[in-house]
Design a protein that fits this description.
binds manganese (III) ion, about 210 residues, 3 strands, minor pseudopilin epsh fold, 3-stranded antiparallel β-sheet, Helix Hairpins, mainly alpha
Length: about 210
């Protein structure tokens, strides 16, 4: 993804993740929140042509090299654009297929069992204080790891590769779930696109 950044199309309709994620939330999240990150990222990069040809992934890995006056804007809005682009892709309606065999094997090896992984990820997402994301990442030594980060920060900024992320900003769930973040998290497991996450995993381990 490079400047000028554009809002990616959702790979499904706004109501496709019902009843777990409601249509209105999806529509506002995509057309208002994500669009705002895209617009603000473009305005930040507008006056620095030398950064316009750099892949967003590379920019996020090297934030300290950015001109200081746009560093925070790019961290927040570049992070927001990257995170949401990943988020839409790792969801899909009712994924009941038992694919992603390699990923699930790796999750079992790293977290003892698939259930343990789910519980750990859910707990980290639940306990994250304030706005942020829960992440499943591949570390430089090719291990799988789970942690949360504040705001729109991204594992790329830590040298890890994100393969799955859960948005726990209130804008992601408040209309339907209000303060019940745990219910949102538990329901979210019904709309995971395991095939896409496995694809991300395979790409990350060969990088
Ligand atoms: Mn969001």
């Amino acid at each position: 993804m490079k400047y000028p950044h554009v809002l990616p199309q959702l790979p499904y309709s706004y109501d496709a993740l019902e009843p777990y994620i409601d249509k209105t939330t999806m529509e506002i999240h995509h057309t208002k929140h994500h669009q705002a990150y895209v617009n603000n990222l473009n305005s930040a990069l507008e006056k620095y042509p030398e950064w316009q040809n750099v892949e967003l992934e590379e920019i996020l890995k090297n934030l300290n090299q950015l001109p200081e006056d746009i560093r925070t804007a790019v961290r927040n809005n570049g992070g927001g654009h990257y995170n949401h682009s990943l988020f839409w892709e790792i969801m899909k309606p009712n994924d009941r297929d038992e694919s992603a065999v390699e990923l699930k094997k790796a999750l079992e090896e790293n977290f003892d069992s698939f259930e343990n992984f789910k519980n750990l990820f859910s707990e980290i997402a639940l306990k994250h204080f304030g706005s942020g994301w829960a992440w499943l990442v591949v570390t430089p030594d090719k291990k799988l790891k789970v942690y949360s980060l504040p705001n729109q920060d991204n594992p790329l900024m830590n040298g890890d590769l994100p393969i799955m992320g859960l948005d726990v900003w209130e804008h992601a769930y408040y209309l339907k779930y209000q303060n019940r973040r745990n219910e949102y998290i538990q329901n979210w497991w019904n709309v995971i696109n395991w095939g896409k996450i496995e694809e991300n995993y395979k790409e990350a381990v060969i990088k």
